[in-house]
Amino acid sequence: MKKILMIGGGISGQAAAQLATALDIECCIVNDTECAGAKLSEIFSGVDLVVVSPGVTGNSRLLQYAVAEKFEVISELEFGIRHFPGKLLAVTGTNGKTTTVELTEFLLKKLQVNAVAAGNIGLGLAAVAAGIIRGEFTDAEKMVAVLEVSSFQLEHTQKIPALAAVLLNVESDHINRYAGGLSEYRAVKERIFNAVPEDKRFYGMSMTGQKYSCGFEILNDTLYFQGKTLLDLHKTALAAEHNQENLLAALSLVASVVPLATRLNELTNALQEFKTGDHRISPVAEINGVKYIDDSKATNPAAVIAAVKSLEKMPCKNIVLIAGGLDKDMDFTPLATLTGYLKKVIVYGRCGSKVAGVFTDEVPVFDAKTDFALAVREAAATAIAGDTVLLSPAAASMDMFKDYKERGNVFAQLVRALPQ
Fold it and tell me: Which of 77, 254, 354, 378 has the fewest CB neighbours in a 10 Å radius?
């Protein structure tokens, strides 16, 4: 192989370029904007393989040409898989992927396994493979890569030969990407199992199919192993219902690598040390008796519902919800099930009015339009001691922010600037 064409830059493009360089293969990164009007036959001249960034859609002129001319087209993830000598674990789903991957990596490391989180979590697997070729990792054959895999990555990934894989859930999200709606979105997600042994294909509790079967179960917020009480989950950061789901998924993956029956003390100690990442139901401040929570990573309705119910077990109308952002043609109507929990809903951004439309007069709604700071001030003016102001947007951030992290950071800055 002499030349690779990478369609799309960003993290994936740079990762693919690193791996190509390590393999002594020419790699040219291109995108549709820069190539507008260019002769495609010249751009693809001498190309042996086309690698596609997950952000590239089917409308891409470059991608359409590659497919029409029968070039081999793969994802950056699959490019990395082809040159990664270790073992793989894989996680996909609408919600919970990042926490599950982070927890799996954390537990494996605590159990002395050479593990690395990669994929959609931020470090491209191709970059990991490049580092191995450059000699930056030891015992690469024993390394376990825990992959967070998005539906966008799966579109051009033929197979992930993982020891085990999890499909956590499928909720309304990214419907603007899939003409076939939710059914097509799910079908893409299930491609994660294409090369996984049948007994190692795990589905979340909201799905149908093979359940977690590693000897662990959770009853009344307590973790058990083969009937033996292990740990009160309130001693961990994983007591919320959605994180219990993530925990069982992570344990199933870890058990595919490590025999856990003889490592239970190490395991329970590690679980008590684990902390969830930023912008996931993260406390920001308590001001005048009002709690402010950053859940900016909640980019679909199901994630918002999980957040609200983790904060309040019973409906009591003391949550002021801030929601809105970039619409992905999602169905926001499930948010109406939160009526009993919400004191007020404050919407903003491009899909704010669409979010507002799912609530009846029983829940007051304030539309801050494109003024995010106004949304935070209105929430603060509404809340009284004992209330919680929750940023849980149910939508993407890119209409007003670079990403969900910037959105969460701006929220925290605005909250900390409120009068004490």
Answer: 354
